[in-house]
């Protein structure tokens, strides 16, 4: 049986480091990282909205996000892979969403995070082509959360009151 990917957990210094930019053409090892990210997101549709390379132990600016704004839950999920992403514009308008992270208590800890409602991101695809895209709402949160990972930032940074972190079980009760 193939071993599943181990997600690096909070406390490991790699999660708090700014990762290395990727140069093109990408290397075989970078290609493997990309495949691992896509495979993980494909296999864990319910629990993973995004994954960044540092979370699988590789300090490189590579991340993947699930396109919850485009998905058709009946058929397939669309995963967007971003290399060297950077936020080039943020809206003044803010939005607050519940966020969790696979690297914090294996995704079983949630907190409310306020971020810009819309962001424009510049990123590169696997072939080195530059793209620019604007995301809004929850999708914008996912994208910002993953880009934060590449800069050594965890969502806990935005939760000022630790008593306002909840397990999935507790959150269900709160949101009832
Ligand atoms: Zn995360």
Describe the structure.
The protein has 176 residues and is of the alpha+beta class. The chain has one domain (13-94, 116-157): Peptide Deformylase. 21% of the residues lie in helices and 26% in strands. It has helices spanning 28-43, 137-150, 168-174, and strands at residues 50-52, 62-66, 79-90, 94-99, 111-116, 118-124, 130-136. The radius of gyration is 16 Å and the shape is globular. The chain starts with 27 loop residues before the first helix and ends with a helix. The structure holds zinc ion. Zinc ion binds next to helix 2.
Topology:
Blueprint: H1 28-43, E1 50-52, E2 62-66, E3 79-90, E4 94-99, E5 111-116, E6 118-124, E7 130-136, H2 137-150, H3 168-174
Antiparallel strand pairs: 1-2, 2-3, 3-6, 4-5, 6-7
The chain binds zinc ion.
